[in-house]
């Protein structure tokens, strides 16, 4: 496959050119932005079992990572501060290393069945403070650290993206069997998949066992 090249004359490279392409936003879209967590934002966070956190490394390279747990897993410390437990993962530490280098973060909270989302932008700090981590323990296992976010911008986001994607609509669910297993895809993209189907099934089973053992 040959590399795609953009035609320079069609590149939008400044904000003035960008805004000429769109109608002006309405006043409510501008006014909904807050610097503190409202009662509605707090209720949304309490119900959310999943968020995505966007970070940026020292060289400007962007990253987005999922975080999930039981509804309300994000602790509200006050109306300007949140704490996200760092549960066991693959230990790449992409998000955490980025926070150390650049504290600016963006959060997107989702609730299954809700077409709206909650967006929060702020500044993050990593902490191992014992009393905070104690309150985040699950099955007597504390996270190694928490991501504490000082809220700078917070607002609810409309449903258009979810309506277009039919994300929660059962009739639009796709069959997971139409793509290979995670282990198969990783092997395809790295060292190559084992030829023996039985060996592949064993690797898939081992991954599932690891999920059960290392969720917390």
Automatic annotation (TrEMBL):
It comes from the Bacteria. Residues 40-158 form the Pyridoxamine 5'-phosphate oxidase N-terminal domain. It holds the Pfam family PNPOx_N. Coiled coil: none annotated. The lineage of its organism: Bacteria, Pseudomonadati, Pseudomonadota, Alphaproteobacteria, Hyphomicrobiales. It comes from Rhizobium rhizophilum. This is Pyridoxamine 5'-phosphate oxidase family protein.
